[in-house]
Each structure stands twice: as C-alpha cells, then as structure tokens.
Amino acid sequence: MLLNLHVKNMALIDNIDISFDDHLNILTGETGAGKSIIIGSIAFGLGGRMRSDMVRTDAEYGLCELLFSVDNETTRKSLSDRGIDIGEDGELLISRKITGNKVINKLNGDTVTASVLKDCADILLDLHAQHEQQALKKPGYQMGILDRFGGESVSSLLEKVKKACEEYHAVRDELNGAMTDSKQQKRELDLIRYELSEIENAGLFEGEDEEIAKRYKKLKYGRDIIEYVNRVHAICGYEEDASAGSLIGNAMSMMNSAAELDDELKPIASELIDIDALLADLNRDLSDYMSSLSFDEQEFFEVEKRLDVINGLKIKYGNSIKAILEYADKRSTELLRLENYEEYLSELKEREEKAKAEYLSLSRKLHSERTKLSKKLSELIKTALSELNFLDVVFEINVEDTGEITSKGSDKVTFMISTNVGENMRPLSDVASGGELSRIMLAIKAVLADVDETDTLIFDEIDVGISGRTAQMVSEKLATIAKSRQVISITHLPQIAAIADANYLIEKQVKDGKTVTDIRRILDADIVNELSRLIGGVEITEAVKNSAAEMKKMADEVKQKL
Fold this sequence. Notes:
Layout: E1 2-10, E2 13-19, E3 24-29, H1 35-45, E4 62-69, H2 73-81, E5 91-99, E6 102-107, E7 110-112, H3 114-124, E8 125-128, H4 132-135, H5 139-150, H6 152-178, H7 182-202, H8 208-220, H9 222-236, H10 244-261, H11 266-292, H12 297-317, H13 321-339, H14 341-386, E9 394-401, E10 411-418, E11 426-427, H15 428-431, H16 434-452, E12 456-460, H17 468-482, E13 486-490, H18 494-498, E14 502-511, E15 514-522, H19 524-536, H20 542-561
Parallel strand pairs: 3-13, 3-14, 8-12, 12-13
Antiparallel strand pairs: 1-2, 1-4, 4-5, 5-6, 6-7, 9-10, 10-11, 14-15
Helix pairs in contact: 5-14, 6-14, 7-13, 8-12, 9-11, 10-11, 12-13, 13-14, 14-16, 16-17, 19-20
C-alpha cells in the first residue's frame, strides 16, 4: 500500500508530505484548491507524463516520491519477476525528479527507465483517472477488462495468439511480395545472373583489396622513391668527396693518427670506426633496395585496372570484399528461389495456410475462454452494480468472433446493459450517462481488485453525477472495498467523506506572497466542519453542523456492520 506521498515544486504545490491510512482515505477541498494537482503528481510519480512548465517558476526542479509497503506475496513475486527486489523492511521508494526536459526515475535509489517504473506501478496500484470513464465506452478497453479478469489463463493464450498473428502476417507479406508478374520475374533473374557473373568473374578473395592498394601506392610513387633513395645513397656514400662516408673515412684516418700520439683518444677513434661500419651497412642496404626497385609501366597499369574493378564492385555491392561475397551468397539463394519459382510459391502458400490454421486454432481457444469468463464476469459486475443502486440492471458481456486476424484474437467484446425494466439491452457506449459510468467503473474496479489482488486503488472523482441514496451506496461500496485493501479517493460528496477511515483536507493558501496548495489530515471537529461545508455550501448553520455530526455518526455505524 501507499504509505507516504512527498511532492515538491509542482504547480501550486510548494512542499507537501502526507502519510496515508491502511483503508479508506478520502480527500476533499474547495473547487480549485488543487485536488487535481495531487492526483496529477501521483500519476507523474508512477511514470505518467508531466509538462516541464508544471514545475514552479521559482524552482529548479520538481519532485515526486511515493513510499510503498509491500506485504502481499503475490505483489512481491510480480515485482521480483521483473527484477525489482524489495528489501527486508518491505518498502519500495519510487522517485521522479524533473529538471527542464529531463526526468530521472529511481526505485529504491537505483536509476531506472520510465517503462520499468510504469511496469512496477501497474503492479502496486490501480489509479482511476477521470478520462477512464470515457475509455470504458470503447470495445478495446472492454476487451482489456475481460482479459484482465481472465488472468494467466488469458494472458498466456494472448501471447501465443500474438506470435501466431505475427508469423501469419510475415508469411503473407512474403507471399504477396513473391507473386510478381512473369516479366518482372525475368528481369529479376537477368539482374541476379548478371551480378553474380560480374562478382564471380572478378575472382575476389578476402584481403585482396588491401594488398592491391599497397602495391598500387608503391608503383604509383616508384619514380619518386627511386629518386629519394638515390639521393640518400649519394649523401651517405663514398663516391663524392662531400659524402658522409668519405668525410667519416677522412675523420677516422686523422683520429687514428692522433690516437697513436695519445692513448686517451683510442676510445674515440673506436667510436668513429663503429660509425663508419654502421654507415657502410646503411649504404649496402640502400644499394640492395635500389637494385630490387624498378618501375614496370605494364605492371602499374594492371594493378591500377584491378583496383578499379574492386572499387567498382564495392560501390555496387558492399564496402568490403567480405560484404561483396556475402551479397553474392544472398543473391545466389534468391536465384535458386526464382529458378524454382513455382515450388517456392507452393511452399509459401503451404506455410501461409499452416500459419493461418495455427492462428485460428489459438484464436478459437481464446474465444472459448473469453466466452466462459464473460458469463462469470457479467454476474459479478451485475451483483456489484445492484449494490450501487442499479436495482433493475441487466448486464451481459457479448463476445463475438469477427473472423479478423489481429494480435488480440478475432473477438469483439461489447458490454451490454439495460438499467430499467422493459428496456432492451444496448451497448454500454450508447446508454450510460456520466453518473452511471462512474458507478459502472467502480463496480468493475471492485471486481478486478479482488482478482488482481491489487493493494491500492485510487479514484479521482468516482462520484461524478451521483447524489442522494446512490451516493450513500457508493460510499458503502468504497468502504467495503477498503476493508481488504487501501483506497484513496477524491470526493465532493459528504456521504463518501463521512465514511472515511482517514480524512484529508486540500487547501489553497497564500504564504510569503505565493499561492500554494497544501494537504493535511483532519480529525474530529475538523471532519465535522468539512462535512458541514460539503452539505451546506456558503453558509454553515448550527443545523448543518448537527446534520454533519449525525452523518458522521451514522457512517461509523454503517462501517461496523459491513
């Protein structure tokens, strides 16, 4: 369950920190006090989107933190299966910080992606936002409710149906692409044969391009190389008086004569001998290189021509010889396919029929499972609706096999309802008003919460469009749900506020010249005052206060009986 909510620098929120009760938590406040901001902050904390301009203009960042206690073993396992481990204290802290256009998501201090955070949030709680009531009218949403009710039995089948659908569409697309006219087929055959012939005639082998490139460079600059080496040989040789070899020879002769006169010069004379030997070796190596080096114009032409062939093939078929050879292998396979075109088409058609048969088999199983579940879910929702003042309601879930091939099966799921005696059953989207939709959604959430073992339910104004006896029954339904799990709800109705286990007041105030939204838990007299406001509106009389106190007393008595 949600233990604590901490929000900082979001819209009108400066800094709030609120702890929630185990059971029914009711949030009330004047219109415009910031109730939607509280729910919006929770939604953002759970991975939802929030515009960067929602951060207070005087703040560098916005922050939302939600602290959960995870005691339910099913919830623990679901989180663990997704790589999220709960510590020994059983607590999980979700944190989202928005700075500019950047959002940082953390789970127990570890940075995670928004998708991981959303996946985690879906397990921890179910947040009912106002737009969901309109979504309830859509067949796709209704199918999702039925599938969610089915749990593992449906989800495992759905996964198989999805894979079978993908396989069928992949084979069908390949078949459609293969069914070209004979002229196009002949053109493709001619092109493949030409390409393969061109690559085969080139006689390529891996690494040849690098080897040819080196040879080409050496041949292209051969004359320059010869000129440079000849000049170096002249400078370092013995043929000219000014050459290094000649000069070192003269120096060595003079140093030897000096060493005969002074023994201390003998080591230096020996060094000159070593230098002369090194220079002699250098000149020998240069002579050997020069004798091996020559410029063959014919060889240069052939190497240049070969390099042009290789580069031309690279432009057409790949940026390396390896890529060219891989392309040739691929085209050889295509050639074989086209040369055996009728056999290939026959094989594709057989694969398509097999893939379709597999899909239809799984889809029928899914249809059968949904049909069976629809009867059970219909009865549960009908019972829940009768507890919400739908006294003569008839509710059914129609599962129709449309024959379409989709990733979610061939079914169309339609919620059918009649709310009055003598009325025909009609699709939910055609007949339900706003107030009816809110109660229907509450009934569905109550049923699904039992199936999902959802720890926390959050309702954003589930009481829209209801009043009087219906409001009382909705309050009792919320209290019943809250006996076994945590419920957090915003309301405008005193009947719902009165039955709360914990009441919170959302207020808009001016602090230090700034308008801020605050939230605090209220007790005893403050609860009666807030109920009085909800009952009486502008003027709060003693009679209204007495009515509020009586309403609170009666609500407490009702809770004892639930």
